[in-house]
Amino acid sequence: MQVVIVESPAKAKTINKYLGPGYEVIASYGHVRDLPAKDGSVDPEHDFRMLWDIDPKAQKRLADIARAVKASDGLILATDPDREGEAISWHVLEILKEKRALKDQPISRVVFNAITKSSVLEAMKNPRMIDAALVDAYLARRALDYLVGFTLSPVLWRKLPGARSAGRVQSVALRLVCDREREIEVFVRREYWSIAATLATPRNETFEARLTGADGKKITRLDVGTEAEAMTFRSALEKADYVVRSVEAKPARRHPYPPFTTSTLQQEASRKLGFAPAITMRIAQRLYEGIDIGGETVGLITYMRTDGVDMAPEAIAAARSVIGHEYGERYVPSAPRKYTAKAKNAQEAHEAIRPTDVARLPKEVARQLEPDQAKLYELIWLRTVASQMESAELERTTVDIDAKVSGRALELRATGSVIKFDGFLTLYREGRDDEEEDEENRRLPAMSANEILANKGIKADQHFTEPPPRYSEASLVKRMEELGIGRPSTYASVLAVLRDREYVKLDKRRLVPEDKGRLVTAFLESFFDRYVEYDFTADLEEKLDRISAGELEWKDVLRDFWRDFAAAVGEIKDLRVSEVLAALDEMLTAHVFPPKEDGSDPRVCPTCGNGRLSLKMGKFGAFIGCSNYPECKYTRPLAAQNGENGEAETNGTRVLGTDPVTGLEVTLREGRFGTYLQLGEGKDGEKPKRSSLPKGLAPADVDLETALALLSLPREIGRHPESGEPILAGIGKFGPYVQSGKTYANIDAGDDILSIGLNRAVALIADKQNKGPGGRRGTPAGRELGEYPEVGGVISVRPGRFGPYVNHGKINATLPKGTDPETVTLEQAVELIKAKAGTTPERPARKAAAKSSPAKSPAKKPAAKKAPAKKPAAKKAAEG
Fold it and tell me: Residue 686: inside a domain, yes or no?
């Protein structure tokens, strides 16, 4: 019996059918071990020694694999055909050696680009050994990411409260988004005018021509900058005589696009289908691993992580056959098309993403697929087939026209283009091509030189230059690829991390940096500029690719990087927070203190009138405060908010109306903890009534009626049928809830706090009570994640009165919005607990913890009990 190791159970099930008796296919469920989230997991002092921890969830699976391998005749490692797949195979093999599960069984590595029977069986005939160079590239990349994250993130936590973490590629991607926002903020609109004439031939066929020259000088788009200039040209053209100077018609060809790579698939799926890159990759994974088609599980597309644009000869032949059958021989080029790309790594340059069988038409498989799967499969099929179709044939016509008046010589030009043969365009156009369609199909009437034209009207239109657009996820992926930042397999996860850590948000499918993200970028640019430079990051990626090609030794690359990086971190550790604030205040001036329309100083405090506004740092992050504190308590978020008409709103406030009962003004405001409602301003030191917005309610959707209803909370829904106690509905610090006595129950996302009824409230409260106490003082026991890597003590994720949280000793850290408690890992929990504590555990505790393995030694327990006692001191240091 041969044991075959793959990543996923879906893949295992499919391949098991292909191989039949004599093989046992087992899934590893992805990576089985990783670097533990603690200092020392990568040790530069000992030649970058790496300490690996087995994922607790993988222990049983690895035991099953070891048992199967011990009784087997051979081990076949059949994980994905890329760097990560090679690493998974290497990890599994290393663990099996540690478990002494291998005796004299032969070990081989096989790869296949598609999960079809023919591909799998062919791969089994061509085994190889694990590619050491690809594994080295994985080790180097993993070590670099760890060293940057676990060295830089604690510096961020100490200097920028509220910052989550920094990453090698993630920080550079964030800088791209922030740099674009900075361009938008400093952009100055420029007025310009376009002048066009509607002209007619002697046959009364009309067309439009634009002014392109005057008195021997060329006129470009921005050259006519005022209304006076535009009106002068318009007046002259209204009196001019028009004659055709020349007509030039040139044939042109448009060639099809190559089949998809990972990044181009993500871009097109975003533009055409509205899929985020992470969603695109998740759906593509399913299509690759296999779908049940006619009772047989088959992979529908080839491997979806690739830089390659070429296709196998048999796939090209199949595509040409489909084109001839479905569209006619006119659409089949005389020779097959071959595409090449500058491969970043020859060993990772696989085939392009294509259907495993081009003859499997989208309409034929749609009924067996989920709707989103069908859409993505069709997109891949269309691009693949179009890539082998004949080019489109066009004719581009340019007509130059002279306009003579009062001794002046004005020049106009008309352009047109017509598709003579649509070729591949009959099947596929890139998402951005829609804007070109009118240009391609705009015909000009037949004209000849010296022909007299009639004036049918002159128009002069005012325009203003526009700032560069914010990045969409698709355009950011494209820009990262152009700069050589990251690699196809990382783009989706990088974008997901930026959103999850609330460094950016999506607004109308555009990426907008949050204030937290702006601060992190400004900090890194101020003190670690080299490590967020585009060229530096791209150069490092190139070195990692050269490692995987066997051209560089991986530890040499790590040594070069660590020497300078460690020195840069050492310089910043002793920097005072006041120095950090001064640097950030200066760098973020355009964002934090935009110029006022009346020309007044934007830093003057609007409350006391003589204080100076500047960047401040609090326990929960940065804000703007007055220099006259504590006499003046004016504060606001970092960025001035814009009102509906575009004017800056003082203190981020939008007036919704007046409360008819109290006569007080109802306002919507931006605070350090998000958007909230406020009634009046408060008098005699009393705080005004406020209410946060329920999750899912956008600030733009809040009207006066909704605001008054929210401000009236908590409201009594009714009486509990058993206890007779009133049941209240309200919004607390951690979201909407219902309450009866001392029992609080969070309401579900589908419930509306303003309309939730008595029966539903009673059910939620009963459900909360039935869960009962679990742990000390009624605290639910939750799910254990493991021991704290540095000081011991169990870390668990628990359901809480105000939402799920992670716990270690006396420290509770609420999970970020949208985080599923069932998927929280030990590494994520440690990061949250460290951030809540404000500092990492002190070094003596780390040394004590390092003496024995937390997972195995009971001697760790005393250290775990002592750890909470240090937290007050740590908190004090953080606040100081």
Answer: no
CA dist., res. 113 & res. 99, Å (int): 31
Peptide linkage before 154 cis (omega within 30 of 0): no
SS (H, E, C) 577-621: HHHHHHHHHHHCHHHHCCCCCCCCCCCECCCCCCCEEEEEEECCE
Q: Hunting for tokens 């670690």 — which residue is that? A: 528
243 φ, ψ (degrees, to nearest 5): -145, 140
Q: Which letter does DSSP use for residue 351 in this model?
A: P
Does residue 293 sit in the same domain as residue 341?
yes
Which CATH number fits the domain that encloses residue 41? Answer: 3.40.50.140
Asked whether residue 838 is assigned to any structural domain, the reply reads yes
Over residues 208-262, the pLDDT tens digits come to 999 999 988 999 989 999 999 999 999 999 999 999 999 999 999 999 999 999 9
In a domain, 76, yes or no: yes
Helices 534-548 and 170-186, interaxial angle, to 10°? 150
Residues identified as active-site: 303
Answer yes or no: are the C-beta atoms of 521 and 295 closer than 8 Å: no
Question: Do 144 and 162 reside in the same domain of the chain?
Answer: yes
Distance of alpha carbon 279 from alpha carbon 281, whole angstroms: 5
What single DSSP character describes residue 137? Answer: H
Same domain, 751 and 801: no
Q: Is the dihedral of CA 471, 472, 473, 478 positive or negative?
A: negative
Closest by CA position to 157, among listed 651, 880, 878: 878
Amino acid at 498: L
Candidate from 152-156, 447-451, 799-803, 868-872 with smallest mean pLDDT = 868-872
Q: How many CB atoms lie within 10 A of CB 399?
A: 25
Matching residue, tokens 């030794």: 553
Distance CA(402)–CA(279), nearest Å, equals: 55
Q: Taking CA 270 as the corner, what is the angle to CA 267 and CA 271, rounded to the nearest 5 degrees?
A: 85
- Whether residue 18 contacts residue 38, with contact meaning beta carbons closer than 8 Å, is answered with no
Q: Are residues 480 and 497 in the same domain?
A: yes
Domain count, the chain: 6
405 & 452 share domain: yes
Percentage of the chain exceeding pLDDT 90: 37
Q: Are 641 and 674 in contact (CB under 8 A)?
A: no
Final residue before a domain boundary, out of 105, 130, 155: 130
Q: If we measure between CA atoms, which residue out of 327, 284, 279 comes closest to residue 305?
A: 284
Does residue 290 share a domain with residue 179?
no
CB atoms within 10 A of CB 325: 11
Range of the domain at 222: 191-255+393-464
